[in-house]
Amino acid sequence: AQTVTQSQPEMSVQEAETVTLSCTYDTSESDYYLFWYKQPPSRQMILVIRQEAYKQQNATENRFSVNFQKAAKSFSLKISDSQLGDAAMYFCAYRPDSNYQLIWGAGTKLIIKP
Amino acid sequence: DSGVTQTPKHLITATGQRVTLRCSPRSGDLSVYWYQQSLDQGLQFLIQYYNGEERAKGNILERFSAQQFPDLHSELNLSSLELGDSALYFCASSAGTGGFYEQFFGPGTRLTVL
To answer: Considering chain A, what percentage of its residues have pLDDT values greater than 90?
Structure first.
């Protein structure tokens, strides 16, 4: 079965510091996509970053970057220079190329301390 | 603003009732996905339509049904409602089908079953 595991229900970080959110997944597929979504209190689901499994280079979007370890099936999100607006639930999601559905982790609540 | 609209924003109803949730995809997007976010089950994929045809089914109950109309808007029908159906229902759309295409999420419909 394809599953996504986020082992940290909650993380907190001081404003301007760096935090890493963990995600592991289980799959036998070779082609797939991985995503981090942010869900602020407004409940809107916002795509933060995506990674194609066939790409060895880790994706980066401004202060957000990932550490993609395909063999270990690990996909962590690093947020640098944390800002108050980063406070949200963060969901890791997986989508195989052979299927159309997103499979979600349970989420990590990120708290930013001013 | 993702460009995906969902109505209504909030819905409060009683057990045993039937409701219809509506989704309008981004202009030009042919694929529509429905997801359920509940406290006990987390985020789950329900169903996907592509250009009017059902493409994939996830953990959708038999009491639930959906369709996509010729103008590409989609409706999710929930019947014989139970307390456990209380959740946030998201619609997402993408330009095509398959893993490559990013899914853009609507703001969700919050359903409360009393």
So the answer is: 83
